[in-house]
Amino acid sequence: MNHLLLTSILNRIRTTSVGVVGDFCLDAYWQLDEGEPELSLETGKPTFAVAQQHYSLGGAGNVVNNIAALGVGRVCAYGVLGEDLFGEELLRRLKAVNTDPTGLIRQEADWQTSVYAKPYRGPEEQSRIDFGRHNALSQDSEQKLIAALTEGIVRLDALAVNQQIPKSIFTPGVIAALNSLALQYPDKVFLVDSRHRIREFGSMICKLNAIETAALFGTTIRKNEDCAIEELGDYAKRLFEQSRKPVFITRSRRGLLLFDGNGTSEIPAIEVEEPIDPVGAGDTVVAALASALAAGATLLEAGSFAMVAASITVRKLQQTGTARPEEILQLAQSPP
């Protein structure tokens, strides 16, 4: 994309309002002390000491973080948190990136804030500890969430739907409400990225990766680059016939495939030299697509914009990085 077009999109993004509804998580990084362990006086067993700790936004929180970094004028979060310390930390981090958290419902019973806790010994990650795997959305929380979405959508230009956890906020009632809102507000951008339930969402632009897409149609591939473009185009067409909305499929180093109802388009990725860290790149793509489309970009422009943003985040090693406007414009000015 040329510098002039990128500047235009970024300027328009500053005036948009984008919401994210989904599975808000914390990524916890605990660096364990590698010294001689102390024995517990009570049990006599060795104890594990955390020497350093830090936390970052994960799941839908990382989508929000990316949207905020792009300079969106107003960012809103919709989801459910537990009445716990992790919920407080997640709220604090969302507010730090100027996100409106009024759409986040707090549920005390049967809900823990989702956390992926990653203990490290030196550079090596140990067995992960997950919080919130067995959450159960209460009827009261479901009604409050639907009410918040129904009330909030009128002030949004786009809503990104992010489903990552099997037992999450996306009950049949919440999905039905989102599908109804997408039909009720066809002038607004609804973009869904669902790891497990993409077929249940209707009238929304779909974003998937090639592995997820192939699996929907009974095919197993190991890498996003492995699916032939003709086969992937057929899958995208069949998904379009379900939702009647465009389909974006990420292909890692091969970029994006777009099916818009008339045919397929290949949007190339920007070549990036190793080493790279692809963790969170899919969230960057979702954030960039939603933000650019909210700003009035065409489908092809939004896809190209997403490839520029993703090429920046994958260069940020050992972190779920974001792409800021100044980084995007600097990349556009760099020689090929």
Write the layout of secondary structure elements.
Elements: H1 3-13, E1 17-22, E2 24-32, E3 50-59, H2 60-69, E4 74-82, H3 85-96, E5 99-107, E6 114-121, E7 124-125, E8 129-131, H4 139-152, E9 158-163, H5 172-184, E10 189-194, E11 205-209, H6 210-216, H7 229-243, E12 247-250, E13 256-259, E14 264-267, H8 281-294, H9 299-313, H10 325-333
Parallel strand pairs: 1-4, 1-9, 2-6, 4-5, 9-10, 10-11, 11-12
Antiparallel strand pairs: 2-3, 6-7, 6-8, 12-13, 13-14
Helix pairs in contact: 1-10, 2-8, 4-5, 8-9
Descriptors for this entry?
UDP-N-acetylmuramoyl-L-alanine:D-glutamate ligase, nine-stranded mixed beta sheet, 36% helix, 10 helices, alpha/beta, 25% strand, 336 residues
Shape: globular
CATH topology: UDP-N-acetylmuramoyl-L-alanine:D-glutamate ligase
Order of helices and strands: HEEEHEHEEEEHEHEEHHEEEHHH
Uncertain ranges: none
How many E-type strands? 14
User: What separation lies between the terminal Cα atoms?
Assistant: 12 Å
Strand content: 25-35%
Written description of the protein model:
With 336 residues, the protein is of the alpha/beta class. It has one domain (3-26, 57-117, 131-333): 3-Layer(aba) Sandwich (UDP-N-acetylmuramoyl-L-alanine:D-glutamate ligase). It has helices spanning 3-13, 60-69, 85-96, 139-152, 172-184, 210-216, 229-243, 281-294, 299-313, 325-333, and strands at 17-22, 24-32, 50-59, 74-82, 99-107, 114-121, 124-125, 129-131, 158-163, 189-194, 205-209, 247-250, 256-259, 264-267. The strands form two sheets. It has a nine-stranded mixed β-sheet with strand order 5-4-1-9-10-11-12-13-14. Strands 2, 3, 6, 7 and 8 form a five-stranded mixed β-sheet that branches. Strand 13 (256-259) and strand 14 form a beta hairpin. Helix 2 packs across helix 8 (281-294). The N and C termini lie close together (12 Å). The mean pLDDT is 94.
